[in-house]
């Protein structure tokens, strides 16, 4: 039924319009995506119209390009090899990697200008290759250009392969607020190439693992056990361990989005954002000197201790969580956790308000009642947050 007539009076008629739209996109795990004999990318581009030649613009993270100086040439050779099916209308366009691209709106406009100049239409592609920040910015550009051109994500960091790349959100920062401008827009395809991870600096390899610990803690105790058992391999970034960690983490995120019942976050809960209320604030307080994943690791530890202090989680489990994070290479302390605003309150506490305001509705925070079991609460006590911060500080002094 297209719509339902609800109520008729002399001068008012109300119809309840209702429809649903199904989303479907492939998430592929491969290696050496731009080897001309690897069909993953071309198959993804051609999956709806196999015989058509598809126009595409590629936006390339400049940090990745520096780490892989051969990449632009490899992309061009790939496109030349598949010229019958892909029309790369310009050389890959370099864009700033990291939070910079999300912090200045003119980068968004420049990318829209590029799509305009090359007449990218709703059946053409805006392909992003890079870390989560570049994917977020290009995702926003793709979603808003012609009200949505096809967007292919090629995540190149641990965090973007195991978390943000498979999600349905994009966004950039404005007015000092993270992800203030953005949309929910499922991508056309997500193509993960493990080889990119191996080029990543140590700091970013470590940072992305926070999201795996996070999703294991709230959804999958068996995965947490696996992370503990394989911590030594992960701490030295052993390839097969990294591949398993990334894939399992991505699967858990996909399951939440596909089957959690609220992919576009209409409700008040952000079930995958365990440890994130303070993490987002810490990123801002440190002007993004702390990476997202590094801040999330601290947020996980903080909320684990808070879970214990509020009687939800068995004492000792927070130590187990912190030990794993530290073994993987995280520092679980940053002096900004103690910074205070003009009223003398802990600045981090404003993160709770920001978190609620981002969604609207009631404050909903995920805490832990066990390893693998997230629980939602609607209040956090300032004094217990302060105690949790003190606990982290004391811990790192030993
Ligand atoms: N949309 C979502 O659902 C979602 C979810 C989580 C995080 N995020 C966002 O993701 C961003 C963080 O992403 P990130 O952790 O991927 O880091 P990032 O995008 O900030 O990239 C980190 C650095 O790595 C460089 N880089 C990227 N790939 C590389 C490679 N293979 N080799 C060498 N250098 C490389 C980049 O140039 C950058 O300097 C944040 O802005 C965060 O808000 C979005
Ligand atoms: Zn995150």
pLDDT averaged residue by residue: 94
Sheet of most strands: 7 strands, parallel
The small-molecule ligands in this entry are: nicotinamide-adenine-dinucleotide, zinc ion
Per the principal axes of the C-alpha atoms, what is the gross shape? globular
Structural class: alpha/beta
Number of helices: 17
Radius of gyration: 22 Å
Helix content: 40-55%
The termini sit apart by 65 Å
The fraction of residues in strands falls at 15-25%
Helix and strand succession? EEEHEHHEEHHEHEHEEEHHHHHHHHHEEH
DSSP strand count: 13
Q: Catalogue the unreliable spans.
A: none
Descriptive tags:
about 400 residues, alpha/beta, 7-stranded parallel β-sheet, two-stranded antiparallel ribbon, 17 helices, globular, binds nicotinamide-adenine-dinucleotide, binds zinc ion
What does this structure look like?
The protein has 17 helices and 13 strands. It has 398 residues and is an alpha/beta fold. Strands 3, 4, 5, 6, 7, 8 and 11 form a 7-stranded parallel beta sheet that branches. A two-stranded antiparallel ribbon has the order 1-2. Helix 13 (276-285) packs across helix 16. The longest helix is centred in the middle third of the chain and has 21 residues, at 239-259. The model has no long low-confidence stretch (mean pLDDT 94). Bound molecules: nicotinamide-adenine-dinucleotide and zinc ion. Nicotinamide-adenine-dinucleotide binds next to helix 2, helix 6, helix 7, helix 8 and helix 9.
């Amino acid at each position: 039924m297209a719509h339902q007539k609800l109520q008729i009076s002399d001068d008012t008629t109300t119809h309840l319009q209702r429809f649903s739209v199904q989303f479907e996109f492939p998430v592929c795990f491969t290696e050496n995506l731009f080897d001309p004999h690897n069909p993953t990318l071309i198959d993804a581009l051609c999956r709806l119209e196999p015989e058509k030649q598809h126009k595409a613009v590629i936006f390339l993270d400049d940090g990745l390009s520096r780490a892989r100086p051969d990449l632009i040439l490899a992309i061009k050779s790939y496109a030349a090899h598949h010229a019958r099916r892909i029309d790369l209308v310009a050389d890959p366009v370099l864009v700033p990697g990291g939070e910079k691209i999300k912090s200045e709106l003119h980068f968004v406009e420049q990318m829209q200008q590029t799509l305009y100049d090359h007449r990218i239409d709703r059946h053409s592609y805006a392909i992003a290759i890079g870390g989560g920040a570049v994917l977020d910015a290009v995702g926003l550009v793709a979603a808003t250009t012609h009200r949505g051109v096809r967007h292919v994500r090629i995540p190149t960091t641990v965090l973007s392969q195991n978390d943000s790349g498979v999600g349905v959100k994009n966004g950039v920062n404005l007015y000092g607020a993270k992800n203030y401008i953005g949309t929910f827009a499922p991508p056309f395809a997500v193509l993960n190439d493990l080889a990119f991870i191996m080029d990543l600096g140590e700091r970013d390899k470590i940072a992305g693992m926070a999201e795996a610990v996070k999703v294991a803690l709230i959804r999958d105790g068996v995965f947490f056990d696996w992370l503990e058992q394989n911590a030594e391999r992960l701490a030295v970034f052993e390839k097969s361990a990294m591949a398993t960690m990334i894939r399992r983490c991505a699967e858990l995120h996909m399951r939440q989005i596909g089957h959690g019942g609220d992919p576009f976050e209409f409700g008040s809960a952000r079930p995958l954002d365990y440890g994130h209320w303070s993490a987002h604030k810490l990123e801002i307080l440190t002007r993004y000197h702390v990476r997202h994943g590094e801040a999330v690791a601290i947020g996980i530890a903080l909320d684990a201790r808070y879970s214990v202090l509020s009687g939800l989680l068995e004492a000792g489990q927070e130590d187990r969580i912190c030990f794993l994070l530290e073994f993987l290479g995280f520092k679980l302390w940053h002096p900004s956790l103690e910074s205070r605003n003009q009223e003398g309150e802990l600045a981090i506490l404003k993160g709770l308000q920001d978190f609620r305001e981002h969604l609207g509705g009631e404050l909903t925070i995920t805490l832990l009642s066990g390893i693998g079991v997230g629980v939602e609460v609607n209040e956090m006590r300032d004094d217990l947050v302060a105690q949790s911060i003190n606990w982290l500080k004391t811990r790192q002094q030993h």
